[in-house]
Amino acid sequence: MLRIRYMALVMLALVFEGCTCCAYLNHMFNAERLDEQAAEMRAARLDSIPDSENSLPGSEERQKYDKIIEKGSRVLERFPKNKKRTAEAVFLIGESFRHKHEWGKAITKYDEFERYFADHDSMKAVEYQRAYCLYRNHEFNISRFALEPVIASKDHPYYFQGLNLLSLLDEQAEFPDQAIASLEAVLADTAGTPFMRGKAHFRLAGLYFKKENWDKAREHYTAKEIKELNAREQQTAGEQAAECLAYRKEYLKAADEYKELYKNPENESKQPEYLVRIGELTMLGGRYPDAIIILQKVNTEYPRSEFASRSYFCLGDYEQHKTIDYDKAVVYYDSSFISRTISKWGQEARERRDALKRLIAMRNQNDKERKDSIPNVDNFFKSEFLIAELFLFKLDEVDSAMTRLDAVIESGDSAKSLRALYAKAFIYDEYMHDPDSAEEIYKQIIEKYPETEYAKQAQVNLGMRVTLKTREDLAKEKYMEAESLWTIAAEMPLDKMDQVDSAYARAFTRFDSLYQEYPETQAGIQALYMKAIYFQMNPERIDSTMLTYKLLRDKYGQTPWGKKAASMMNTRLTITDQDLERLRKRVKSSETHVNKLSAQYYEELNKAPEEKQAEVKSQEDEILENTYNSMYDFE
Is residue 131 within 8 Å of residue 156, measured between CB atoms? Predict the structure, then answer.
């Protein structure tokens, strides 16, 4: 009997011990099952979008990660001393945080894993994933340090992923050459998987594309391992490979590659974009009739869309630059704008349409000016400059702008030729990137027109020390000399009137000679005003004063000194519109205040007698003064 009871107690103890194990297995089984479900959802999500790295999990997927974290946390609470169980739980929690893009929390868990479970089988994965999370958390220097054990040996299971991450870090640090070297090392080793090599080809092609190395970029975009990538990345690789051909000016070959992409049923959503691009490349390849047919097909099949706007813009560009039929180009640009007003193509088409309309109107006006018996030369040249500006800034026709400027230079008008010469040099330098031609014209301006602002600016543009002086500069120097004489005269003591008069006379002579020599300059006009001030100081010369003021008012009325002279001649009291408006506001404010006081008075007056109560001043508030100073002294 005792033996049977002993056996029962042993079996009961085993049952209770087994219950603890079952609790652990239940939590971990649920966590692993949730992890598998989340992995399936994650794979489906990443396959459906082009930018997989920046894709965030949906609400259902996040809930599964939260449950994994919850189950793992319970294991850590209930079995803190069981190293095997806690290691698996910490790893799953870290992975869940990583998939949720909570990089800081994931890094914390990975650090905890290495601190307590450095000899675990998952440690290799933790080393790489921690470095990746540090990279995504913008801790680039620490990420590079954490990546060292991953790329130290080719035996590491994440060696090739580590090289790829190293290239990302190099690219982030603006070391594209080092990033390229890291990816080339991945491809040089034959041990990598086809998918990993495809990823390396794709990123390497992108780096070469940014560096405008079209040959190498196309070589990697067309690598056979690219077929191992998802459909979106294959599509992008095909597009970029075709664009490499376009940048190499192999337009028709690029159009053929876009045709292959167009025929692929997986690219159905991008067929309108491909069709427009085929038309553009065919146009660039010189097959204009075929290109027009393709672009018109876009307009027919996808009306009132951004693709139609882009197509009409391309047709307008063709009519503008190839056939020089501006009227037809205006019609196409207008259709582009109407098709999709808010698109980039529609906005640019509107600018070109408006510019062409102005251009046509100004050309007609200039043709009319040429036919007149007495042409208006100023209006003609003004229109020519405006036409050149339209060609340059609005229509992107640099050659047409240069042709217009050449016509102005050959006209013989020195002022207009100088302006046109400088504009031509500017276009050579800034738009055509031909510094040699620009330098030649700048030197020509310095030699032929040394006393102009254009010559001074030409010296600046050539990086020379500015040594030239314009008439304005020379006049300003002489004005400063005359002004210094005037200041000396003003500071002389009045007991030496003879010296004072002679000093003012010398200053007057300088001002007079300055105006006679440089009447068109600002300093010359100011010198004329100082002459009037000198005359005003002598009452017997009032007539000279008024004549000088009259000259300033009539000839230089738009300058500050002309306006000042006009005010000095106007002796009557004047009131401006602003003064009148301020006066009206003050009167209105006064009337409002008076009406308010009047209303208060009549309100008090109309109150019932019982409402009117005399104000009684309390005894404690009353202050009586009995001093002499408080009394009125009537004497």
Answer: no
